[in-house]
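> run fold Sodium/potassium-transporting ATPase subunit beta
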Amino acid sequence: MGLVSLICTLLVVVIIIIAVALSKTAHPRTTPLRHSELVYLVPQPRKFINRTPTIVVHRQNPRIWQKHVEDLSTLVKAYRERQGAIATSNCDLHYAPIGVSSCSFPLDRISDNCTVQNNFGYDTGNPCVALVFNAFAGWNPVPYNKSNLADIPPEIRHGYDFQQLIPITCNTSVASSGESNIFHIYYSPFPGFPFRYLPMRGMMGSTLPPLVMIQFIGPQSMADVEVSCYLWAKNLPRNVTNDPGSIRFSFFIV
Ligand SMILES: *[C@@H]1O[C@H](CO)[C@@H](O)[C@H](O)[C@H]1NC(C)=O
Ligand SMILES: *[C@@H]1O[C@H](CO)[C@@H](O)[C@H](O)[C@H]1NC(C)=O
Ligand SMILES: *[C@@H]1O[C@H](CO)[C@@H](O)[C@H](O)[C@H]1NC(C)=O
Ligand SMILES: *[C@@H]1O[C@H](CO)[C@@H](O)[C@H](O)[C@H]1NC(C)=O
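> ok
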């Protein structure tokens, strides 16, 4: 039963993401989904020639940003509906009530800025994106051991509880000036993927794959911004070509 509901859940999410991708016009092309990817990025960036896949944030043009808002609200709605259909309990990052077999993903702890009411920040040039864990990839994260501080990369050495979650960090640089990290980045509900919500651990099949909503709050001016996001786990070496734990895209904010 648990496994069946996991598969249904994943199918719902993937079908929705694929439907969203297909509903876009053929020009410019959308990035194809590859099942080897460890995470899905929503909204799907578009592919342009000689550019990192790009999310266009056109503050003055609702016809352009409305599509991104639709992608994200479709995703959150799918989570809500799916969650309503399986018996779930509210859990904490550190604590699940005794006897509980499934924890509902805490959608209500996603920042109010990253909601449909606030257009996921697209009308104000402070866009939100979602990173969704891809359970199909079959990847089993191995956490860092906080006792071996020297093994932990400096980027995540402080402020993370490796027993509880796989950290996700993002950094930005402005393409023309090379200025880096002028965007403030907010992660919700958690700054990574909690192990508690990973489908393959423990409570198999009863939870939805974790997602992280990430908001980029910037200088409110036109900007072409390169973004790199990273997943951090012991079995994701950073210095390999085609690092599977890195997600790269850009924002073109006008
Ligand atoms: C929401 O966005 C505004 C900018 O539009 C920012 O000042 C504020 O800190 C954000 N709030 C949160 C909780 O991220
Ligand atoms: C973490 O490292 C310490 C010291 O090397 C070791 O005793 C402990 O068993 C390790 N914990 C895990 C979960 O591997
Ligand atoms: C983010 O940081 C990494 C490592 O510090 C660097 O290689 C990468 O170029 C940076 N990305 C951006 C978009 O600044
Ligand atoms: C880079 O990868 C090699 C193995 O491919 C490893 O021996 C080395 O320690 C890695 N370097 C860093 C800085 O992670």
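The longest strand covers residues 165-174.
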